Amino acid sequence: MSEKITLILADDHAVVRKGLTAFLATANDIEVLDVAICGSEAVNAAKKHAPDVVLLDLFMPDQPAVETVRQIKKASPRSQIVMVTSHEGDEYVVPVTKAGAISYILKDTTPEELIAAVRKAAVGESTLSPRVAKALMNIVTSAKADEELHEELTQREMEVLQCIAEGLANIDIAKRLEISEKTVKSHVGNILSKLYLTDRTQAAIYAWREGIVKGKF
Q: Which of 86, 157, 162, 189 yields a CA-CA distance of 20 to 30 A from 197?
């Protein structure tokens, strides 16, 4: 039996917390370790538990979401952050994505879609609600042609991206770079967030297109 996906839920509305907890309880492969009612509690919980996934409300009473995301990633780099909100404005999508959130879904999503997003985040894959994805794509496509998004990647993330482009699986990347497979998953999630991509296939295409690996695209 495979290990359960560990999760922290953070939302300042009791009704929403109960609803999301009920949704997640229908999945026998997900375990909610802790529940937080503000950003600072979410950070402390992430530091304590180092969960696979953090479900984080965009608007919390004590601090901006982008700061909470940064602090969570610092406290627990392996944790993947899924933003949950009723707001689809692109003014929030880009900052939290750059800060380290891997997914951005709306609160009107179905329980099945929510659980699917958690499962994808746990393996380093991104999920964007269609309306949010459209807004984000408009931003990316309108950016300057010479802007290189991969400049924001760390040296280790660049190494992982190169391995992805070579077609290596996470377990093989872990062996090559002498790091754990969970650390690889975390790096993959960060890469997808920073490059505004949704899966490793897109990441591989990006790497070849931008000349990050040798060969022709």
A: 86
